[in-house]
Amino acid sequence: MKNRTDQHAVTPPDSSRTDHALPYRIAVLCYLFDADGNILLLHRAKPPNFNLHSPIGGKLEIELGESPTECAIREIEEEAGITLAPDDLSLVGIISERSFENSGHWLLFCFEANKPVVVQAGPHEEGILEWHHPADIPNLQIPDTDRELIWPAFFKHHGGGFFMIHIQCENGTLSWTIDESRPPTDA
């Protein structure tokens, strides 16, 4: 069932805008939890989101025809040092961002591990891997879109649900549409 009732200050695309010429990037975000329910975050040392906390992830190798699932498995192995199979992951959301930091458009596939993982916290070439309790996330330095939209959507849908959000970031304003919201059902 689609839910399009959560629309916020959204206007239809304007064909006179020039932001359509910005590059489109496709990436994954990977949400990994340990046995105590803590979530693995990367305190980023590089753009995008320099000096902010975010889930591990990265861009698809488009030239190789990499799928979002293949990308998630590769990024988890590169950044967390563990190998997961496709059956160990679930797609929990899709996010499109128009004109992020006025530098490009993003299509993000959000995956979560279906089982707890063991990953050593510490330095990584992309930043510092850290375990955090989910209740601490609002107190961390995170991107505005993550604070206002992505984390609330993830926590509402993780564990068997699905969401799709379109975010517009033009000219320093933030607006969004929740195109689909299916929270997990109790079994």
CATH architecture tag of the domain at 22-141? Alpha-Beta Complex
Strand order of the largest sheet: 1-11-10-6-7-2-5
Average pLDDT, all residues: 87
How far is the N terminus from the C terminus?
18 Å
What does the overall shape look like? Answer: globular
CATH topology of the domain at 22-141: Nucleoside Triphosphate Pyrophosphohydrolase
Give the fraction of residues assigned to helices: 10-25%
C-alpha Rg (nearest Å): 16 Å
> Per DSSP, what share of the residues sits in E-state strands of 2 or more residues?
35-45%
The beta-strand count equals 11
Low-confidence stretches: 1-19
Structural class: mainly beta
Mind telling me the CATH class of the domain at 22-141? Alpha Beta
Tally of alpha and pi helices: 2
In CATH terms, the superfamily of the domain at 22-141 is Nucleoside Triphosphate Pyrophosphohydrolase
How is the secondary structure organized here?
Elements: E1 7-8, E2 24-31, E3 39-44, E4 53-54, E5 56-59, H1 68-80, E6 89-100, E7 104-113, E8 122-124, E9 127-132, H2 144-157, E10 162-168, E11 175-182
Parallel strand pairs: 2-7, 6-10
Antiparallel strand pairs: 1-11, 2-5, 3-4, 3-9, 6-7, 8-9, 10-11
Could you characterize the architecture of this molecule?
The chain has 187 residues and is mainly beta. It has a domain at 22-141: Nucleoside Triphosphate Pyrophosphohydrolase, CATH 3.90.79.10. 14% of the residues lie in helices and 36% in strands. The protein has 2 helices and 11 strands, in the order E-E-E-E-E-H-E-E-E-E-H-E-E. The strands form 2 sheets. Strands 1-11-10-6-7-2-5 form a 7-stranded mixed sheet, sandwiched between helices. It has a 4-stranded antiparallel sheet with strand order 4-3-9-8, with no helix packed on it. A hairpin with a 3-residue loop joins strand 6 (89-100) and strand 7. The relative contact order is 0.23. Residues 1-19 have low confidence and may be disordered.
